[in-house]
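User: For my dataset I need records formatted as: sequence, then structure tokens, nothing else. Please produce one.
Assistant:
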Amino acid sequence: MRTGAASRAPMRRILVALDASRASRAALESAAFLAARQGALLEGLFVEDVDLLRAAALPFTGQLALPAGLPLPSSSILPDLQALASRARAALEDAAAARRLRWSFRIARGRVAVEVVAAALEADLLVLGRGRGIGAGPSPGATAATAAARATSPVLVTLEEAAEALPLLVAWDGSEGAEAALDLALRLSDAGARAPALLVAAEGQAAAERLAAAAAARAGHPLRWRWIGGSTPGDLRRAAPARSVLVVGTSSPAAGGPTGLERLLAEARCPVLLAR
């Protein structure tokens, strides 16, 4: 079993994946907010998508589109990616300066999801937006889904609005995955965020009360909670309001395994914070 105190030290490094999308800008604001709360280094990553570059080099490629919906001649794709990287760096610098944060920025070249997951190995938290980004993924959110499945660090997936100061709602079913989610939420609240609340997944009211008591004992203080019914990803999607951050343990039964997590990320009305 995990020990709550051991996993609640302040974060040292927060990585944000940057591109040209509105969701990426919201991710940056969320990452900067959390870095300020945690006293962490804010790291920015921009990936030059190798699949996009290879597509641009094909002789029959006439025009490519970037995430903002701007069509570009294939011959200009690399300079435009470099220009977007410069804009991403400037946005990161501005966000860090506004909060007096330590920051760093780097550009990688490769497949977007692979590079993001690899860069997150040394981070305490990965933040990225739910959107297509600079890449040739099969669907919006493909990078987020890959990070959810493969990243070893916690992952915050934002929407098109920053997740600053939103209440944390922990998906709680008493499992080890739920313990990880609660510990992560408490780790953030220890740095000044409001105390997390629980969405308790249980088969009945009496079972929910027992689970809520166990969570309070782990936290060391009472927690607000609400019973949401059985332990399914659908219950979580319906229960979490838009103005909140849903904190879910990836191994929790309530997450529904890889398929349930992917659907949760695609359909959630609020940012989702995944705990390991």
